[in-house]
Amino acid sequence: MPINVTLLFSAQHYLAAAEAYLRGIERRIAAGLNPVVESVASVFISRWDVAVQERASEELRGTLGVSVAALVYARYREVLADRRSQRAFNFGALPQRLLWASTGTKDPKATPTYYVDALVMPFSINTMPDVTLKALADKESAPQLMSTDTTAAERILTDFAVTGVHVETLGRELQDAGANSFQKSWDELMAVLMAAITAADIATAGTAQVAENGTYSETKFVASFIGFAPATDPRLLVAVIVDQPQGDIYGGSVAAPAFGKIAQYALPYLGVPPE
After folding, report:
1. Do 102 and 45 form a contact (C-beta atoms < 8 A)?
2. H/E segment holding residue 189
3. CB–CB of 114/61 below 8 Å?
4. Chain centroid to CA 251: how far?
5. Could you give the CA distance from residue 29 to residue 91 in angstroms, rounded to a whole number?
6. Whole-prediction pTM value?
7. Cα–Cα distance between 136 and 96 in angstroms, integer?
């Protein structure tokens, strides 16, 4: 299952995520398991500049996010070249890719492709909103690769520190704010879903025929099971979809056991005691 480690902001955040990923891969190798686990480490960029836009001078405006990204990328290159990573690669493991997130321009004075232009780096991924993607497609030439020399980035961070903006402190604040925002969205979703069901109706199973060539197949089915766990004060919403199950075709017998296994392993991780 691909893993997206998100809400990373600083080089310290990235290194912690990279260490956790590599440690997990090493454990799989030691256990004789398949080391191929696709993963990205998602580092948010534009929120840095939004956070300091009222304090940054005109000269420093829009430079903090890209400067932090330059330092993150330097650590990324070090991780890929590290002996532990190289050993994992020899066993067939994949590198955890660095992904630039929140690259839409928030400053009306900046071009739509400002962050995309600045973050062209090998072995990285850039996500972007539609308006940025379209603006990039309209450009007559491709952006240049970002320099791996971090001298300018370090100087900019020093300039910000003089104004009272410290990257480690602000990075923690941005991560906490992002986590709270995610939690708020989850709570709102759960409230809407819980309002639509009764306390007794916490799960449902289904079986549907596959549509093909304008009609419904008599031999191909999709089995499903969706439910909440635990039954009181739910913490998880799990949907299991099985495309064209073999043998038994009913959601209650095909998909429900997977629901049970997921809940069995996930709830202790969330600190929920068994009922």
Report:
1. yes
2. helix 167-195
3. no
4. 30
5. 8
6. 0.71
7. 26
Alpha helices in 31-110 (DSSP H): 46-52, 64-81, 83-90
In angstroms, the CA 159 to CA 14 distance is 23
What average pLDDT does the segment 112-138 reach? 92
Residue with tokens 């997921």: 262
Task: State the fold for domain 3-188.
Answer: TIM Barrel (3.20.20)
Residue 201: its pLDDT value, please? 56
What integer best gives the mean pLDDT of the chain? 90
Which residues lie across from 126 on neighbouring strands?
100
Tell me whether the omega of the peptide bond preceding residue 234 falls within 30 degrees of 0, making it cis.
no
CB atoms inside a 10 Å sphere around CB 190: 15
Residue 20 CB neighbour total at 10 angstroms: 15
What is the DSSP code (8-state) at residue 31?
A: T
**Single-letter amino acid, residue 42:** S
Edge-first strand listing for the sheet containing 203-212:
203-212, 215-229, 236-243
CA gap 263, 75 in Å, rounded: 36
* CB-count burial class (<10 Å; 0-12, 13-18, 19+) for 133: middle
Asked if pLDDT for residue 5 goes beyond 90, the answer is yes
User: Cβ atoms within 10 A of the Cβ of 219, count?
Assistant: 8
- 68 burial via Cβ count (<10 Å: 0-12, 13-18, 19+): buried
Which candidate, 163, 152, 171, 157, places its Cα nearest to that of 56? 163
11-30 vs 83-90: helix crossing angle, rounded to 10: 40
Q: Any idea how long the chain is?
A: 275
